[in-house]
User: Fold this.
Amino acid sequence: MKAYIEIIRNSFLTGITYRVNTLLRIFGAVVSLLVQISLWYVLFQSKPDATSHIGAIKLSEMVTYTIVSTLTHIIISNQVIMRLDNKIKTGQIAMDLIKPMSLKAILGSEMIGTTLYNVIFRSLPILLIGIFLFSFQFSGWLNLAFFIIALFNAAVIFFELSYIVGLTGFWYTTVWHMGRVLDNAIRVFGGSFIPLWFFPESLYHISMFLPFRFIYYTPILIYIGKVDMKGVIEIILQQWVWIAILIIIEKVIWKFGIKKLVIQGG
Assistant:
C-alpha cells in the first residue's frame, strides 16, 4: 500500500514540477471555453431557449454544461494509453510484470496523483473564471454530491477504456492513433462538446448503447438537475454495469495479451 501511495505522491509532484506546462494548459482550456461559450451566446441570440430531447434548454444551462464539461475533461484526463504504449514498445512491461505490484494498479495510482493535481491547480482557475465571467450556476448540494459520485464512475470508465485500448499494444506496433480514435468517439458520443440532447434521433439512439455518454453527458445532466432522483440512481447503476463489463473485457484482453508477450519473448 505504501508503494502505491508513493506513486500517487510522485505523480502529483511531477505535475507541480512542470509549472509552465500547467499554465499553458490552463490558457488553452480558457481559450477553448471562451470559444465554446461565445458560440452558444451567438446561437441563443435570437431566442431565449432551444428545444431538445429532454425539453427546453436555456442559455444559462448551456453555459453551465460547457463549463462542467471542461472541468470534467481536465479532471479525468490520463496518460494510460501512451504509458502502456511506451512500456510495451520498449519492453519495460517485462520488468513491470515481475514487480510485486499490479501494472494496472500502478497506472491507476499515477492517474490518481495526476487527478489530484488537476483538481487543485487546473480545475480551480477554470471554475473561478466560470463563476466570475459567465455566471456559472450552482445547482445545489444534493446535485453536486450525486455529480461527484457520477464523476468518479466516469473517471473509472474512462480509465478502463484507456487501459483496454492501451493493451492492444500487445498486437499493434503503436496505439497512439487508436487513442485518438477513442478520444474522438468520446467527444462525439459522450457529449463533450455538443450535448446529446441536440443530436439527431439516429445518433442519439446509437449513443444510448455506448458507454461514452456516462463520461460527460449523464453526469452533467445530474449536476444541472435535468434528471429526477430515479433517473440519478439509474445512471449510477448503469455506470457500475459498464464498469463491470469493461473490467471483464480488460481481463480477457490481458489474458491473451500476456500469452502473446510470452510467446514473442520466449
